[in-house]
Design brief:
alpha+beta; 7-stranded antiparallel sheet; 10 strands; about 30% helix; rod-shaped
Amino acid sequence: MLNAQRIKFCSFTLLTLVMVLFSSCEKNYVPKPHGYFRIDLPQKNYRDFESDCPLAFELPGYARIERVKQNLAKDSCWFNVYFPKFNARVHCTYNPVGNNFGELIHEAYDVAMTHEVKATAMKRTLIDDSKRNVFGILYDIEGEAASQLQFFLTDSTDHFFRGALYFFNRPNPDSIAPVLSFLREDIIHLTETLNWK
């Protein structure tokens, strides 16, 4: 009888020990935080771009020009600076200045302000280069707006050039922040190298 109790006790102890061991091996899984894909940014390099429009500037080596055939106004021209790696485009419009200077400024301002509804902040940077006769405003638009960066450049008498950066994906500020910062440098470079013909 004593032997049977000993076997029961040993079996119970062994079963308890096995259960404790298996329950202690259970891992506590912690979900990984939501992340974004790593983006490899190319080296900065620029080349001269001579436009059909009466302007020229330096274009990034990893961008290409897309011509837009549809012109609504005489002597105006449209093209896109396309960044295939980032699925982004800078929509560019050139218009000659005549008696329409106030209208062109007002339109550029209105287009930038249409994004204010989704913007959390909007910063304006004045562009003033009297040596090249280039003046304008760069709009940095923060938040989930469709366009995070817009600008216009003019000489106030003959030329008016406007651009707007668009990413062709959902406007998530966190996921596009590194690319936006990278392309912002290219757009600043464009404004600093633009010359009228």
